[in-house]
Amino acid sequence: MSGRTRAAVATAGALLTLTGVAAAPAQAAGYRYWSFWESDGGRPWAYATQGPATARPADGDALGFRFAISNDTADSTRPSAAPDFAGICEGVEKKGGTKRIAVVIDFGGPVDAPPGETPPEKPIKVGCAEVREDATGAEALAAVAKPLRYDSAAMLCGIAGYPARGCGEQVEAGGDAGEAGKTPAPTAARESGGSDGPSVGVLAGGAAVLALGGAAVWKARRRG
To answer: CA–CA separation, 210 vs 97, rounded Å?
Structure first.
């Protein structure tokens, strides 16, 4: 077998191996993070198309935040309470220069809690935020659920003090996130905006480029 043939066979084998890895079930069960939801006009919850710092809800809208382990935007768990603006903001009259935003915060259950932490005793918190007319979703959230915690990349990590630590860790199948698995999940709750949730097809180690026989093979995340 010539050197050129051996090289071709080796390259083909490497490509088959990579294909097999990509096709294998992901080792991560998902990501533990706060997802961000919106509702206008009483419509059902919809995964937010931008981050809370850039979203500018209108008077009568509802914002939802849910802490859970999810694989991607399609899999993300919605807040278990309805976007009931009329009920949440009942009796709150609109004032000049302000708007009313119904805020629903779902802390999730024990299965979603980080190691060593327990969800608040009351799993759902709601509030009617009265904020100025040009206020963002982040400002509406802060009006009803301080303290908020963000990481250095401006990702929303904690609401009303929960969880006290961590931020969007990757959770291994059959176990909790370890030190090596702390890959932050890109979410709609990131302050810089964007609707990306963590990808179902994430391969261990994050995005990387492998050069095989001169071809670049991308290990990709959905939208980053």
So the answer is: 55
Q: Which amino acid is at 28?
A: A
Output the CA angle 130-131-132, nearest 5 degrees.
140
Q: What is the pTM of this model?
A: 0.68
Higher pLDDT, 164 or 216: 164
Distance in angstroms (rounded) separating the CA atoms of residues 15 and 30: 26
Residue 61 backbone phi and psi in degrees, to 5: -80, 170
The amino acid sitting at 149 is R
Dihedral angle at the C-alpha atoms of 193, 80, 147, 164, nearest 10 degrees?
Answer: -100
- Give long-range contacts, CB 8 A cutoff, 24+ apart: 182-186: 183/31, 184/151, 184/153, 184/155, 185/31, 185/32, 185/33, 186/221, 186/223, 186/224
DSSP sequence for 159-182: ETTBSSS--S-EEETTS---GGG-
Q: Kindly state the helix (H) or strand (E) to which residue 141 belongs, with its residue range.
A: helix 137-144
Least confident of 29-38, 58-67, 173-182: 173-182
